[in-house]
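Worked example

This section walks through a single chain of length 214. The input is the sequence exactly as stored; nothing has been trimmed or padded.
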Amino acid sequence: MRSDVSVQETGKALRRDAAENRQRLLDAAATVFSARGLDVGVDEIARVAGVGVGTLYRRFPTKDALISELVRQVLEDFVALAREARSAPEGEGLEQLLYGSGAILASNRGCLSRMWNDDETTVLKNEYRRILIELLAQAKRHGRIREDATDADLELILWSLRGVVATTRGVTDTGWRRILAVMIAGLRPGAETLEVPPMSSEHVAHIKELLDTR
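Given that input, the structure is written out below as tokens.
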């Protein structure tokens, strides 16, 4: 009996160590990719994680598998943020979600190019978008956002933030906050009437298709 217990405890310890190594590799990848981009070698990621390259390949057989898992985790953070924003009072959830999304983007600069065109995370992206539309409706009901604002406008704001975050890498980690504040100010009900119509959902879908091929 004592031997069986020992074997069980050893097995649990190994599983725990494997899980911890896996998460260390993902955390290291996020740090290294954010600082140096996706072209960095996996040996540097293993070094930052404090494990051998062999351990990295046991957890992730390819570099692409590592990137895909990192992207999935980031998108899970987006969805968790969106769900939490649903409980914000007085229609404040939309702004909470937009600022939170900017912070996630800024913390994961390295994988921005893969974040919205990874086929394995379609379900997560669709849930995030559904909640975004729901929060937009709530913000309108509480008079925080102008009535003519559309979900396409919000998608373009997020794409714009992605561009600001990417181009300011190495210069500032907070520049995106100013740009987002300007954009939200333009979404207020008191802002002047917009003469240009919003982008259609068909245009947005076509842009997504183009992004998927890049």
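What to look for: DSSP finds ten helices and no strands in the chain.
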